[in-house]
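Progress against Task 2.4 (sequence-to-structure conversion) is shown through the following example record, which the project officer requested during the mid-term review.
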Amino acid sequence: MPALTFALERVATPLGQMLVLTDEQQRLRAVDWEDHETRMHTLLRRQYGTDAVRLDGAGQPSRARRALEAYFDGELAAIDGFPVAFGGTVFQRQVWQALRGIAGGQTVSYGALAHRIERPTAVRAVGLANGANPVGIVIPCHRVIGANASLTGYGGGLHRKRWLLEHEARHCARPARPSTPG
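Structure tokens generated for the chain above:
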């Protein structure tokens, strides 16, 4: 079977260089940080197999790149529903789909996420699936926190998780509109 070919872009963000991988259909396949590139390659091997993926430079900015840049500029909805494709187990995909249901500016605990997928005793497995998410930010694993509201684990580092949550809180806050006389 021929290797899958993904376009690789290196995108400057307020949190450092981001790696963005898309396929020929412009679906997002992976997002990671340049300082965690080794981990990204490990996740790709786990999902697709050894030597199953080839990376090429992108010829032009992808839709995924533009959506992520808009997200970092404060347009949080730019990534909502963005098309993604990934491997993973049935359980992992179930967790990743549930992550997409967490609104920007909101957080849930691993236990609450396990309840959402109707697997309340699978808290640890939910955490492992969360950590194996290949499409961070768009599949918002950073919105999952500890039961005591602590910032627990994030593949890109807790400083990035904290920044992403603060960024979303800033841009989700809506100023109150003045009431109009009626």
